[in-house]
Amino acid sequence: MKRLILAAAVVFVGAPFAVAQDAPTGAEPSRVVGAPRGKALDGDALAARTEDVAGLLRCPVCQGLSVADSPATMAVNMKGQVKELLARGYDQEQILAYFENSYGEFVRLEPPLRGVNWLVWLGPVLALAAGGVIVAWTLRARRRAGSVEPEAPLPGPDTLPDDPKLARHVRRVRELAYGWPDGRPPGTSA
Amino acid sequence: MKLNARVLVAGLAVVAPLVVVLVMNLGRDPHVIGSPLVGRVAPGFTLRPLDGGEPVTLASLRGRPVVLNFWATWCVPCFQEHPLLVSAARSLGDRVRFIGVIYEDSEEQVRGFLARQGAAYPSLVDPGSRTAIAFGVFGVPETYFIDAEGKIAAKHIGPLDEPSLEAKLRQAGLSP
Fold first, then answer.
1. What CATH number is given to the structural domain containing A40?
2. What residues of B are in contact with residue A100 (Cβ under 8 Å)?
3. Do the chains contact at B36 and A61, CB–CB below 8 Å?
4. Does the distance separating the beta carbons of B45 and A74 come in below 8 Å?
5. Is this model's pTM higher than 0.90 or not?
6. Which residues form the domain of B130?
7. Number of domains in chain A
8. CA A158 to CA B85: how far, in whole Å?
9. Nearest CA-CA partner of B159 in B134, B139, B133, B136
10. pLDDT averaged over every residue in chain B
11. Is residue A149 part of a domain?
12. Domain check: are A83 and A51 in the same one?
């Protein structure tokens, strides 16, 4: 009997409380991302924006496809919700945040600029800058080291190595390759 | 020689973090994506039961743990876990509310399936997968364990087995 009374009390006291807390996340967008911040869209503008925003959402059941690009039922349903939210005046960021609330950051195809994600956006720029600095340093160090050693002139076609044994082989190879051993056809001169 | 040592250090500076990241994530299943909803109040819903009757609201189920199972008849793992869910629902009786949410399936298919395989709890119709999307469902089966206060205590991806069902029911506040 005591338990029954207690249960009844819970039901009566808890009922309005429970109703007030219905749909606290997910189901009703305004509870997740607040009142619409944009202009309610319709017609061609609505269709175009739907494609744009759906293109920024990752289809959860696909491999690396956006909601706009996927024919999966899930993606079609999500795109329908994007359209509905745009028609109700929610802006792009609110819509992305709404889906992020359920799926996590994963659902955004472009990682937002926050936390570790800054590395993704700034990393390449930083790496390029660092590379430039290294190249500049190296060049300056070389210039400061003074004259770059003059490079040895490339051997001409008829020069021979000083080593007589090697020279003999070079002449032999020339003869085999061109038919003459002196680096130029017989009868011509340098 | 001095240059070689420098190159070695620079190379290590590039490769070492990559190796660390790789090793740290080797044991991770890339298909398991944590749900941001775990630990938060579950998205509310009002859905029509397949077999008629009053629409079910999540808020009306407060006061005891809820097992919310997203499933479909075309999903083989759902078929595998169905007997476990039915027997658990029968044996736990009033202590836990079991609810199925039908995911991308036709009502006739589900009716036929439940007539053949048995049913012990209501399955709700989810038009446009709105509830599935609000819960962040990636695929079926996915099961959410909601505690008596309406918070999502745990999520299970894939077919349930007895140990994980028991463990997650406990997380949702069911005393053994």
1. 1.10.8.640
2. 36
3. no
4. no
5. no
6. 31-171
7. 3
8. 91
9. B139
10. 92
11. no
12. yes
